[in-house]
Amino acid sequence: MDSITQIVLGAGIAGAIAHKQLGRSALVIGAVLATLPDLDIFVPASDVVTRFTEHRSFSHSLFILFPLAFICCLLLKLKFKTNVISSQRLFWLTCLPLTTHPILDAFTSYGTQLFWPLTTHPISIASIFAIDPLYTLPLLIGCVYLWRNSKNSTAQADKKTQTARRINHIGLIISSGYLLLGLWLQTLTLNKIETALHGNNIATNKIFISPLYPSLNWWGAIVIDQGVYYDVQVNIFTNTLQISAPQDLGYSMIDKPNSALTSLNWFTNGFIRLQDIEGKLVATDLRMKTGQLGYAFKFALAEKENGDWTNITPLRL
């Protein structure tokens, strides 16, 4: 998800846990902790494919973030005394903003390696668009209300502050409900797609389905079947479904995948299309599509020389 969403989610959760004890400091702590996993973008990478596949890896691993939460808790205990906030509450204040970041990311199409260093495919539930104001807005409203109605001291909050806390709780409930709604609509859409595919004698064992826009109305699916793929679009409100003609995945152009293509196939679980574009072997991540705007990630992996493909340092197009 986008950075703003992660910040307000972390701040909202922290506010629900410790606003009564720490006031605005709880929101600041939650916002800062919620941004830490995405600092991996500053880690140097050997090429663009490595950067693509290693983002949301170690920094999003629950095996890393749980120990980090303990360390952050110990550091915060140096500032906040136990008579202000209990050790247990302080741990959850550090743990939940950190761990909910990658868990929320796993609901998007990109893919999150929640269990790094295990070499399982990245988790990509793909039930929510990467930027969705309908998810973010309730969280933002709750955080703004809490911030505006906070007290710098830890004295008993007044009625206005109590109302702000309830609004923050409601924002967290609404956003969580929106995630559940996305899962439910995704399941309904998948059933609809599978029924249509069976009617057209198309295999249904390899399908990737995700929202096409920042809403839960338009959904798209990529269906892979014996070297070709189908692009499926579904509009829930109008109850319409369109299946494209079969399109070649392009693997007949190569003898064997190079290391960059192998990494991309692992990261996307095989949802990669190959094309010869102006003498370059271009790999496209079919999962990451925004409506009619096209695909977000395309990489040039090789160049054609004397009829053969020569590997190059990958380029993002």
Protein described:
There is one protein chain. With 317 residues, the protein is α+β, with helices and mostly antiparallel strands. It has 3 domains: 3-182, no CATH class; 187-243; 250-316, no CATH class. The chain has helices at residues 3-22, 24-35, 48-54, 62-77, 87-105, 133-148, 159-199, 259-268; strands spanning 207-211, 218-225, 228-235, 240-243, 247-248, 272-277, 280-285, 298-305, 308-316. Strands 1, 2, 3, 4 and 5 form a 5-stranded antiparallel beta sheet that branches. It has a 4-stranded antiparallel beta sheet with strand order 6-7-8-9. Helix 2 crosses helix 5 (87-105) and helix 4 packs antiparallel against helix 5. The model has no long low-confidence stretch (mean pLDDT 92).
List the helices and strands and how they pair.
Layout: H1 3-22, H2 24-35, H3 48-54, H4 62-77, H5 87-105, H6 133-148, H7 159-199, E1 207-211, E2 218-225, E3 228-235, E4 240-243, E5 247-248, H8 259-268, E6 272-277, E7 280-285, E8 298-305, E9 308-316
Antiparallel strand pairs: 1-2, 2-3, 3-4, 3-5, 6-7, 7-8, 8-9
Helix pairs in contact: 1-2, 1-5, 1-6, 1-7, 2-5, 4-5, 6-7
Total beta-strand segments: 9
Q: What would you call the structural class?
A: alpha+beta
Q: What is the total number of structural domains?
A: 3
Give the overall silhouette.
globular
Largest sheet: 5 strands, antiparallel
What is the percent of helical residues? 40-55%
Termini gap: 22 Å
Instruction: Name the poorly predicted regions.
Output: none
Strand percentage lies at 15-25%
Number of helices: 8
Average pLDDT level: 92
Rg computed from alpha carbons, rounded to a whole number of angstroms: 23 Å
Oligomer: single chain
- H-E order: HHHHHHHEEEEEHEEEE
